[in-house]
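Following up on my earlier thread - several people asked me to post the actual chain instead of describing it. Fair enough. Here it is, all 114 residues.
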Amino acid sequence: MTTYTSDERRHTAETAPSMTDVRYEIDRIDRLLVEIIAERQSFMDAAARIKGDRNIVHDRARIEDVVAKVKAECPKHGLSPAIAEPVWRTMIDRCIAYEFASYDALRLPAKVKS
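Reply from S.P.:
Thanks for posting it. Predicted structure:
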């Protein structure tokens, strides 16, 4: 299981006195997001391994369920749905492409070099 660690948090959005401090916090958060998204990506490999049919990799109902759940969380955390929805839809789209590649890599024979 992943444990998320971070550089020291120096400020909140309300206490950051300079753009240098704002950028420090954004960079710190971005490093955490990379770690979290990498963990999410690892489950695309698991899905590719588990799914028995390539045709079910793209699941429209599941996409809409994920987006609805994310949008429901937004008010709890003060995240604008106008930011969250396109971010998640893009991430889901890229994760589906990744899952297709992972699925194919597991099942298709390696190309022979000529």
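The mean pLDDT is 94. That should answer part of your original question.
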